[in-house]
Design goal:
The protein is an alpha+beta fold. Helices cover 23% and strands 41% of the residues. The chain contains four helices and eight strands. The protein has helices at residues 28-38, 43-46, 48-52, 63-77, and strands at 3-6, 17-20, 24-25, 78-81, 85-96, 105-118, 121-132, 140-149. The strands form two sheets. Strands 2, 3, 5, 6, 7 and 8 form a six-stranded antiparallel β-sheet that branches. The protein is elongated. It starts with a strand and ends with a strand. Belongs to the enoyl-CoA hydratase/isomerase family. Pfam families: MaoC_dehydratas (PF01575). InterPro entries: HotDog_dom_sf, MaoC-like_dom, NodN-like.
Length: 150
C-alpha cells in the first residue's frame, strides 16, 4: 500500500516504516532484457542449461537488476503530492547479500531514515531491503537517496 503525503508534511517522516510491497516474480525474460540493456550476458544469468550446472543450481538475476527494483518498490510504497519533480539522487552502502534465482519472488521494504531540506525540496535517505520469498537472507540491502522538488 502506498503512503502518500503532501510536501508540506514530509519533515517529520524520519523513522517511518513503509512496510513491504507485493511479491514480484523474477522471470528469465526480465533477466534477459536486463542483460540486453547492460550488455552483461554472463552465462550464470542467461544460459539456464549451463547455469543449472553452475554454483547456484540455475540462472540468477544480475545483482544490479535486483538493485534496480528498489526504484520500482520505492515508488509503490511512497509518494509525495505537491511536487513537480522526483529524482533518484544516488545510493549509499549497497550490499548484494543473496543471489536471486530465476523464478524466485522478491518484494521491497523501506524505512525512511532521514529527511533533509535541499534547495527547492527535500531529500529522503531510505533504508531499503529486497527480500526473497522463503529465504533467510535478503537479496539486497541499500540506502537509496531520493529528491522531491516543489
Amino acid at each position: 500500500m502506498t503512503t502518500t503525503v503532501d510536501c508540506a508534511d514530509v519533515a517529520g517522516l524520519a523513522g517511518t516504516d513503509l512496510g513491504f510491497t507485493e511479491w514480484l516474480e523474477v522471470t528469465q525474460d526480465r533477466v534477459n532484457l536486463f542483460a540486453d540493456a547492460t550488455d552483461d550476458h554472463q552465462w550464470i544469468h542467461v544460459d539456464p542449461e549451463r547455469a543449472a550446472e553452475g554454483p547456484f543450481g540455475g540462472p540468477i538475476a544480475h545483482g544490479f537488476l535486483s538493485l534496480s527494483l528498489t526504484v520500482k518498490f520505492w515508488s509503490e510504497l511512497f509518494d509525495v503530492t505537491g511536487v513537480t519533480t522526483k529524482v533518484n539522487y544516488g545510493l549509499d552502502k549497497v550490499r548484494f547479500v543473496s543471489p536471486v534465482k530465476v523464478g524466485a519472488r522478491v518484494r521491497g521494504g523501506a524505512v525512511i531514515a532521514e529527511v533533509t531540506e535541499v534547495r527547492g525540496g527535500f531529500q529522503f535517505a531510505v533504508d531499503q531491503t529486497i527480500e526473497i520469498e522463503g529465504a533467510d537472507k535478503p537479496a539486497v540491502v541499500a540506502r537509496g537517496l531520493y529528491r522531491f522538488y516543489a
